[in-house]
Structure formats: structure tokens, C-alpha cells
Amino acid sequence: MNTIPTEYRLEGDGANIQALPKVSLHDHLDGGLRPQTIIELADAAGVDVPVHDDDELGSWFAEKADSGSLVEYLKTFDLTTAVMQTSEGLTRVAREFVQDLAADGVVYGEIRWAPEQHLARGLSLDAVVEAVQTGLDEGIDDARNQGHAIRTGQLITAMRHADRGLEIAELAVRHRDRGVVGFDIAGAEAGFPASRHRTAFDFLAGQYLPVTVHAGEADGLESIRSALFDGRALRLGHGVRLAEDLTIERQDDENTYVSLGPIAQWVRDREIALELSPSSNLQTGAIEAWGDELIDHPFDLLYQLGFRVTVNTDNRLQSATSLTRELALLADAFGYDLDDFETFQLNAAAATFLPLDDREELAEVIREGFDEA
């Protein structure tokens, strides 16, 4: 069962946040499984699970992930990836993933995952990408039958601590006309900069395939710099520690005066999107330099300074969340209203890896949906 409330209303005008059209840029396939699906796939595959009740298993994931450490947080994925080693399992997970996005009001989602982590039972890299795409297509059809219009794109991810970057980049390019829209690197960030995969990024640049890079989550400004200049990242996965490059010069009763360092200036001036994930950033300790509550998150500072901020879930299972819930939490913390929410979604639409005409159509869908709210 999904224990996340499906309806949150915005204080003031009472808008149903779940019904608003949304764009999801940073959402991991292996972090969005339904607990009941894990139990059923684990039983079929002979994989041990800590509990066999779906509600209790959901709570187990949230508790284990709430560690204050990205390394500890990532250990919860040992179980989810273990049940995603067959074509049938991958297709089911992808199908349900899209169903859940559509039910949450998402009209476009870019879904990232690492094919190299799904080969334990003999599947090839190409076979796992095809299995996931089959599930995504089925999920889109299911959503359409339920009256929801949704599109998806795969972000093929390489694990930054491994040495398969170029191989995975080539995989992404092979499938660019069959559902793949971009490339990412993920995993343990500290000690594994984007520069380790420079050959892969050079290849992708030559093939004109866009890139987002996890950076500024478990490591600081140098990791972000490497993502931008070694990885040629058009978006930053999380990027929350970019706030380390901001200096508050002075404050008065009405204003805060902030100076931007060179990396922050580059990101803002070029409108490089920040894929911020508030709940996840709390769980992994990404914002510990500023505090340990959502009100301490530099999201609002970055927003007020004109950065292209977007709102994301990262891993809906581990964070026991949804995009609707993340927006509601931000509204509670910072007093955001419907206009702010529309800005976040338009920011995300502009930052997708869709062609320009499609991005403009997506922005119009968002505007129309918010006009009707």
C-alpha cells in the first residue's frame, strides 16, 4: 500500500496540489518501487526482505534512509536493485512507476537509473534498457486509460565509482531514439569527481546528448565545478551545496545582500537548473552546514536570488514522499503560493531534455493547468 496522502491543499486559495500539472526531473527508478511489489518480486526471486508487510517495509526504507549520510542512504538500494534483475521485474517496476507519477499529477517525468546494476541474472545492457522502456510505455497507456496524459524520458546513469562510463554513454546514445533523452552519473560523490568520466562526457558532447550530473550533494564546490566543466552538465543533480559559493554581506529589516562566487555566478547566469530534493537533502545531510530542518534548506535563498530551482523527490520510497508532498512541505516552510509553484514547474519544463518545441508545449500545458486551479 502507498501510505503517502494523495491530497494536499495550498493554504490560502485551497488549491489541490496533487491536481496541478508537474514536471519531475530527478526521480530514481530503483528509488520508486511500491513496497508490495518489492515483497512479491523478492518472494519470486528468493531474495530476503526484512519484513513482509507493505506498510512496515515502507517504514523500514524511510528509517534506514534517514541516516544523515549519503553512503548509508545508498545502502537501502541493495534490496530494490536485487528485485530488478529480470525483464519482467524491470518492466513491472517501470510500469508502476509511471502509474504513480501520473496519479500525482506529473505530466512529464525524466526517470534515471543505472543499467549496469541490473545484470546479475544474465541480462545485457541493451536488454535492460528495452525492458524498462516497455514498462514506461505500458505505464503511459495505463495512465491514458485513466484520463491522465503523461510523457517520460529515460536518463541513463553510470555509477561514478565504477569504470564503465564510456560504455554506458554509448548505450545511452544507442537508445536515444527509443526513449532515452539524456545521461547522468550517480553514486558516492566524494572522491569520485565527474573528471573520472571525462572520456564519456567528451563522447556525449560529440553526439549532442545532454547531461545532468549528481553534484553538490555529498561533496562541495569542486565537485560542482567538475560537473560543469568536465561533465558539461546542463543541470545539477541536487546542487544544493552551490550555496557554499554565496556570501551574505549584510542584512537589514527588509533585505539580505548576497554576493555570488564564480561558480554560483556561472550557474545563475546560464540558467543551469538545480534539481533540488528537499526531503532527501535532509536525510543525507546535504544541508547540514545550514541546519537540520527544512526551514534551514537554502532552497528559498537560491530561489530569491534568481537561480533556476526545481522541486524533486529523488527517491519516493526512501523519502516516503511524492512531488505533491515536497511542494506542500516547501509551502509550509517558506509560505509559497500558487504563483511560486507555477514558477518551479515552468523552471523544470525549460530544463527538460526535450526538444525546444516540446518544451514550449509542456510549458503551455503547465500554464493552462495552473490557470484552471
Automatic annotation (TrEMBL):
One of its GO terms (molecular function) is metal ion binding. The keyword Cell cycle does not apply. It comes from the Bacteria. Pfam families: A_deaminase. The keyword Metal-binding applies. GO terms for biological process: adenosine catabolic process; hypoxanthine salvage; inosine biosynthetic process; nucleotide metabolic process. InterPro entries: A_deaminase_dom, Ado/ade_deaminase, Metal_Hydrolase. Keywords: Hydrolase, Metal-binding, Nucleotide metabolism, Zinc. Its cofactor is Zn(2+). Its EC number is 3.5.4.4. GO terms for cellular component: cytosol. Residues 21-367 form the Adenosine deaminase domain. Belongs to the metallo-dependent hydrolases superfamily. Adenosine and AMP deaminases family. This is adenosine deaminase. It comes from Agromyces aureus.
